[in-house]
Amino acid sequence: MSVISASGLTKSYGRVTALKGVGFSVAAGSVFALLGPNGAGKSTTVKILSTLSRPDGGTASVAGFDVLRQPAAVRAAIGYVSQRPGFDPMATGRENLVLTARMRGVKSRAAHARAANLLDAFDLTSSADRLARTWSGGMQRKLDVAMGLVHEPSVLYLDEPTTGLDPEARTQLWGTVLGLVRSSGLTVVLTTHYLEEADQMADQLVIVDRGRVVVSGSPASLKAELGGDTVQVDLRSVDDGARAGKLLESLPGVVHVRRDGLRLRAQAEDAAGVLPRALSELDREGIPVDAVGLSRASLDDVYLRYAGRAYQASASETAVAA
User: Fold this and answer.
1) Which of 43, 34, 73, 299 is nearest to 188 (CA)?
2) Cα distance between residue 121 and residue 321, in whole Å
3) pLDDT score for 312
4) Domains detected in the chain
Protein backbone atom coordinates (compact mmCIF):
# COMPACT_ATOMS: atom_id res chain seq x y z
CA MET A 1 0.00 0.00 0.00
CA SER A 2 1.38 3.40 -1.01
CA VAL A 3 1.45 6.07 1.68
CA ILE A 4 3.00 8.65 -0.67
CA SER A 5 2.29 9.13 -4.36
CA ALA A 6 3.78 11.79 -6.61
CA SER A 7 3.29 12.26 -10.35
CA GLY A 8 4.78 14.76 -12.79
CA LEU A 9 6.01 17.25 -10.19
CA THR A 10 7.58 20.38 -11.67
CA LYS A 11 9.05 23.39 -9.92
CA SER A 12 11.05 26.40 -11.05
CA TYR A 13 12.77 29.20 -9.15
CA GLY A 14 13.11 32.01 -11.65
CA ARG A 15 15.26 30.68 -14.49
CA VAL A 16 16.30 27.59 -12.54
CA THR A 17 14.14 24.50 -13.05
CA ALA A 18 14.47 22.36 -9.92
CA LEU A 19 12.03 19.57 -10.84
CA LYS A 20 11.17 18.28 -14.30
CA GLY A 21 8.34 15.78 -13.90
CA VAL A 22 9.35 13.86 -10.78
CA GLY A 23 7.12 10.92 -9.85
CA PHE A 24 7.26 7.88 -7.55
CA SER A 25 5.33 6.02 -4.84
CA VAL A 26 6.37 5.01 -1.32
CA ALA A 27 5.15 1.87 0.46
CA ALA A 28 3.88 2.20 4.03
CA GLY A 29 6.28 1.05 6.75
CA SER A 30 9.39 1.34 4.59
CA VAL A 31 12.54 3.44 4.32
CA PHE A 32 12.51 5.26 1.00
CA ALA A 33 15.53 7.23 -0.23
CA LEU A 34 15.74 10.15 -2.63
CA LEU A 35 19.34 9.89 -3.76
CA GLY A 36 21.34 12.40 -5.75
CA PRO A 37 24.05 15.06 -5.50
CA ASN A 38 23.35 18.40 -3.88
CA GLY A 39 21.12 20.46 -6.14
CA ALA A 40 19.52 17.46 -7.86
CA GLY A 41 16.01 18.31 -6.62
CA LYS A 42 15.72 16.15 -3.51
CA SER A 43 14.97 18.86 -0.97
CA THR A 44 12.55 20.62 -3.32
CA THR A 45 10.61 17.36 -3.66
CA VAL A 46 10.42 16.91 0.11
CA LYS A 47 9.29 20.51 0.59
CA ILE A 48 6.40 19.90 -1.80
CA LEU A 49 5.47 16.65 -0.07
CA SER A 50 5.49 18.42 3.30
CA THR A 51 3.44 21.41 2.00
CA LEU A 52 6.33 23.86 2.54
CA SER A 53 6.34 24.59 -1.19
CA ARG A 54 3.77 24.42 -3.97
CA PRO A 55 4.56 22.62 -7.22
CA ASP A 56 4.15 24.43 -10.52
CA GLY A 57 2.64 21.26 -11.96
CA GLY A 58 1.88 17.64 -11.12
CA THR A 59 0.07 16.00 -8.22
CA ALA A 60 1.04 14.45 -4.90
CA SER A 61 -0.70 12.86 -1.93
CA VAL A 62 0.58 11.86 1.51
CA ALA A 63 -1.29 9.48 3.83
CA GLY A 64 -4.27 9.76 1.50
CA PHE A 65 -4.38 13.59 1.54
CA ASP A 66 -3.70 15.86 -1.42
CA VAL A 67 -0.80 18.24 -0.70
CA LEU A 68 -2.54 21.17 -2.41
CA ARG A 69 -6.16 20.64 -1.40
CA GLN A 70 -5.63 19.21 2.10
CA PRO A 71 -2.37 20.71 3.42
CA ALA A 72 -3.45 20.79 7.09
CA ALA A 73 -4.23 17.06 7.05
CA VAL A 74 -0.87 16.33 5.40
CA ARG A 75 0.99 18.35 8.04
CA ALA A 76 -0.82 16.47 10.83
CA ALA A 77 0.32 13.14 9.37
CA ILE A 78 4.01 13.94 8.93
CA GLY A 79 7.15 14.78 10.83
CA TYR A 80 9.80 16.88 9.13
CA VAL A 81 13.48 17.15 10.01
CA SER A 82 15.25 19.71 7.86
CA GLN A 83 18.94 20.05 7.10
CA ARG A 84 19.22 22.94 9.55
CA PRO A 85 18.77 22.50 13.32
CA GLY A 86 15.21 23.07 14.55
CA PHE A 87 15.70 22.95 18.30
CA ASP A 88 15.91 25.91 20.70
CA PRO A 89 19.51 25.98 21.97
CA MET A 90 18.48 27.87 25.12
CA ALA A 91 15.96 25.21 26.15
CA THR A 92 16.73 21.78 27.54
CA GLY A 93 16.29 18.68 25.44
CA ARG A 94 13.20 17.72 27.42
CA GLU A 95 11.72 21.21 27.07
CA ASN A 96 12.26 21.15 23.31
CA LEU A 97 10.39 17.87 22.97
CA VAL A 98 7.50 18.80 25.24
CA LEU A 99 7.04 22.19 23.56
CA THR A 100 7.08 20.61 20.10
CA ALA A 101 4.49 18.04 21.17
CA ARG A 102 2.23 20.71 22.68
CA MET A 103 2.48 22.81 19.51
CA ARG A 104 1.34 19.73 17.56
CA GLY A 105 -1.76 19.40 19.75
CA VAL A 106 -0.58 16.72 22.18
CA LYS A 107 -1.98 17.09 25.71
CA SER A 108 0.44 17.91 28.52
CA ARG A 109 0.64 14.52 30.23
CA ALA A 110 1.04 12.68 26.93
CA ALA A 111 3.64 15.23 25.76
CA HIS A 112 5.82 14.60 28.81
CA ALA A 113 5.43 10.83 28.45
CA ARG A 114 6.38 10.88 24.76
CA ALA A 115 9.35 13.15 25.48
CA ALA A 116 10.61 10.71 28.12
CA ASN A 117 10.18 7.74 25.78
CA LEU A 118 12.05 9.40 22.93
CA LEU A 119 14.86 10.62 25.16
CA ASP A 120 15.29 7.02 26.26
CA ALA A 121 15.06 5.63 22.70
CA PHE A 122 17.76 8.01 21.46
CA ASP A 123 19.94 7.48 24.56
CA LEU A 124 19.61 11.12 25.61
CA THR A 125 18.03 10.74 29.06
CA SER A 126 21.20 11.52 31.01
CA SER A 127 21.46 14.92 29.27
CA ALA A 128 17.72 15.63 29.03
CA ASP A 129 17.73 18.56 31.45
CA ARG A 130 20.83 20.31 30.10
CA LEU A 131 20.54 23.19 27.66
CA ALA A 132 20.59 21.83 24.10
CA ARG A 133 23.37 24.24 23.11
CA THR A 134 25.73 22.30 25.42
CA TRP A 135 25.09 19.00 23.61
CA SER A 136 27.40 17.48 21.02
CA GLY A 137 26.52 17.72 17.33
CA GLY A 138 25.43 14.09 17.23
CA MET A 139 23.17 14.52 20.26
CA GLN A 140 21.64 17.66 18.79
CA ARG A 141 20.85 15.83 15.56
CA LYS A 142 19.19 13.03 17.52
CA LEU A 143 17.10 15.70 19.28
CA ASP A 144 15.99 17.13 15.93
CA VAL A 145 14.84 13.68 14.80
CA ALA A 146 13.08 13.04 18.12
CA MET A 147 11.23 16.36 17.75
CA GLY A 148 10.02 15.18 14.34
CA LEU A 149 8.60 12.05 15.97
CA VAL A 150 7.10 13.39 19.20
CA HIS A 151 3.56 13.74 17.80
CA GLU A 152 3.68 10.17 16.43
CA PRO A 153 3.43 10.87 12.68
CA SER A 154 2.84 8.13 10.12
CA VAL A 155 5.51 9.58 7.78
CA LEU A 156 8.86 11.09 8.77
CA TYR A 157 10.91 13.17 6.32
CA LEU A 158 14.64 13.25 7.01
CA ASP A 159 16.38 15.81 4.81
CA GLU A 160 20.13 15.03 4.79
CA PRO A 161 19.93 13.96 8.46
CA THR A 162 23.53 12.80 8.92
CA THR A 163 25.45 15.54 7.10
CA GLY A 164 28.38 16.56 9.27
CA LEU A 165 28.07 13.64 11.68
CA ASP A 166 30.95 11.28 12.35
CA PRO A 167 30.49 7.61 11.39
CA GLU A 168 29.68 6.51 14.96
CA ALA A 169 26.98 9.17 15.38
CA ARG A 170 25.48 8.25 11.99
CA THR A 171 25.33 4.58 12.95
CA GLN A 172 23.69 5.34 16.29
CA LEU A 173 21.09 7.63 14.72
CA TRP A 174 20.14 5.11 12.05
CA GLY A 175 19.99 2.24 14.53
CA THR A 176 17.32 4.09 16.50
CA VAL A 177 15.34 5.19 13.44
CA LEU A 178 15.30 1.69 11.93
CA GLY A 179 14.16 0.29 15.26
CA LEU A 180 11.19 2.66 15.21
CA VAL A 181 10.37 1.67 11.62
CA ARG A 182 10.26 -1.99 12.59
CA SER A 183 8.32 -1.50 15.82
CA SER A 184 5.74 1.10 14.79
CA GLY A 185 5.27 0.84 11.03
CA LEU A 186 6.68 4.34 10.54
CA THR A 187 7.45 5.34 6.94
CA VAL A 188 10.72 7.23 6.49
CA VAL A 189 11.55 9.35 3.45
CA LEU A 190 15.28 10.04 3.41
CA THR A 191 17.09 12.50 1.20
CA THR A 192 20.83 11.97 1.09
CA HIS A 193 23.90 12.41 -1.06
CA TYR A 194 25.65 9.56 0.76
CA LEU A 195 25.49 6.58 -1.61
CA GLU A 196 26.42 4.04 1.06
CA GLU A 197 23.73 5.37 3.40
CA ALA A 198 20.99 4.84 0.84
CA ASP A 199 22.43 1.43 -0.07
CA GLN A 200 22.40 0.20 3.52
CA MET A 201 19.22 1.80 4.86
CA ALA A 202 16.67 2.05 2.05
CA ASP A 203 14.12 -0.57 1.06
CA GLN A 204 13.46 1.36 -2.15
CA LEU A 205 15.14 4.39 -3.70
CA VAL A 206 14.84 6.89 -6.50
CA ILE A 207 17.94 8.43 -8.05
CA VAL A 208 17.34 12.05 -9.01
CA ASP A 209 19.64 13.89 -11.41
CA ARG A 210 19.13 17.46 -12.65
CA GLY A 211 15.51 17.50 -11.53
CA ARG A 212 14.51 14.17 -13.10
CA VAL A 213 14.10 10.62 -11.84
CA VAL A 214 16.66 8.55 -13.74
CA VAL A 215 15.95 5.17 -12.14
CA SER A 216 14.07 3.62 -9.21
CA GLY A 217 14.02 0.28 -7.42
CA SER A 218 15.57 -1.51 -4.47
CA PRO A 219 19.34 -1.11 -4.00
CA ALA A 220 19.84 -4.85 -4.51
CA SER A 221 17.78 -5.05 -7.71
CA LEU A 222 19.41 -1.98 -9.24
CA LYS A 223 22.89 -3.37 -8.62
CA ALA A 224 21.87 -6.77 -9.91
CA GLU A 225 20.69 -5.20 -13.18
CA LEU A 226 24.25 -4.11 -13.90
CA GLY A 227 25.16 -7.70 -14.70
CA GLY A 228 27.85 -8.63 -12.19
CA ASP A 229 30.82 -7.05 -10.48
CA THR A 230 33.17 -4.39 -11.82
CA VAL A 231 36.58 -4.52 -13.43
CA GLN A 232 38.12 -1.09 -12.97
CA VAL A 233 40.98 0.03 -15.23
CA ASP A 234 42.82 3.33 -14.79
CA LEU A 235 44.58 4.42 -17.99
CA ARG A 236 47.64 6.62 -18.25
CA SER A 237 46.33 8.61 -21.21
CA VAL A 238 42.81 9.76 -21.94
CA ASP A 239 43.64 9.36 -25.64
CA ASP A 240 43.51 5.58 -25.15
CA GLY A 241 40.00 5.68 -23.68
CA ALA A 242 37.96 4.91 -26.79
CA ARG A 243 40.27 2.11 -27.97
CA ALA A 244 40.52 0.53 -24.51
CA GLY A 245 36.74 0.76 -24.07
CA LYS A 246 36.08 -1.10 -27.30
CA LEU A 247 38.63 -3.73 -26.36
CA LEU A 248 36.96 -4.37 -23.00
CA GLU A 249 33.51 -4.49 -24.60
CA SER A 250 34.73 -7.27 -26.93
CA LEU A 251 35.76 -9.58 -24.08
CA PRO A 252 33.45 -12.54 -23.34
CA GLY A 253 31.31 -12.00 -20.24
CA VAL A 254 31.53 -8.19 -20.26
CA VAL A 255 28.05 -6.67 -20.05
CA HIS A 256 28.66 -2.90 -19.95
CA VAL A 257 31.66 -0.60 -20.18
CA ARG A 258 31.54 3.01 -18.98
CA ARG A 259 34.17 5.71 -19.20
CA ASP A 260 34.84 8.37 -16.60
CA GLY A 261 37.92 10.31 -17.67
CA LEU A 262 40.92 8.03 -17.34
CA ARG A 263 38.87 5.33 -15.61
CA LEU A 264 37.02 2.49 -17.33
CA ARG A 265 34.47 0.38 -15.48
CA ALA A 266 33.43 -2.90 -17.03
CA GLN A 267 30.53 -4.88 -15.55
CA ALA A 268 31.17 -8.57 -16.02
CA GLU A 269 29.42 -11.80 -15.07
CA ASP A 270 32.78 -13.22 -13.93
CA ALA A 271 34.86 -10.15 -13.17
CA ALA A 272 37.69 -12.14 -11.58
CA GLY A 273 37.99 -14.20 -14.74
CA VAL A 274 37.79 -11.19 -17.05
CA LEU A 275 40.51 -9.20 -15.28
CA PRO A 276 43.63 -11.16 -16.36
CA ARG A 277 42.39 -11.39 -19.93
CA ALA A 278 41.71 -7.65 -19.98
CA LEU A 279 45.25 -6.94 -18.79
CA SER A 280 46.69 -9.28 -21.38
CA GLU A 281 44.72 -7.73 -24.25
CA LEU A 282 45.51 -4.15 -23.17
CA ASP A 283 49.21 -5.01 -22.97
CA ARG A 284 49.09 -6.69 -26.39
CA GLU A 285 47.55 -3.55 -27.88
CA GLY A 286 50.18 -1.34 -26.25
CA ILE A 287 47.72 0.52 -24.01
CA PRO A 288 49.53 1.51 -20.78
CA VAL A 289 47.61 1.05 -17.50
CA ASP A 290 48.23 2.73 -14.15
CA ALA A 291 46.03 0.54 -11.95
CA VAL A 292 43.43 -2.21 -12.08
CA GLY A 293 41.02 -3.62 -9.54
CA LEU A 294 37.84 -5.56 -8.80
CA SER A 295 34.85 -4.24 -6.87
CA ARG A 296 31.34 -5.29 -6.06
CA ALA A 297 28.61 -3.49 -7.98
CA SER A 298 27.65 -0.29 -6.14
CA LEU A 299 25.12 2.51 -6.37
CA ASP A 300 27.91 4.62 -7.85
CA ASP A 301 27.93 2.18 -10.77
CA VAL A 302 24.12 2.41 -10.97
CA TYR A 303 24.32 6.21 -11.06
CA LEU A 304 27.02 6.13 -13.72
CA ARG A 305 24.93 3.86 -15.92
CA TYR A 306 21.66 5.81 -15.71
CA ALA A 307 22.91 9.40 -15.28
CA GLY A 308 25.74 9.00 -17.76
CA ARG A 309 28.50 10.27 -15.49
CA ALA A 310 30.11 9.40 -12.18
CA TYR A 311 28.43 10.49 -8.98
CA GLN A 312 31.40 12.50 -7.72
CA ALA A 313 31.59 14.32 -11.05
CA SER A 314 27.92 15.25 -10.68
CA ALA A 315 28.52 16.57 -7.18
CA SER A 316 31.47 18.66 -8.40
CA GLU A 317 29.37 19.97 -11.28
CA THR A 318 26.68 21.10 -8.87
CA ALA A 319 29.21 22.78 -6.59
CA VAL A 320 30.74 24.72 -9.48
CA ALA A 321 27.28 25.71 -10.78
CA ALA A 322 26.22 26.88 -7.34
Assistant:
1) 34
2) 41
3) 60
4) 2-218 (3.40.50.300), 227-296 (3.30.70.980)
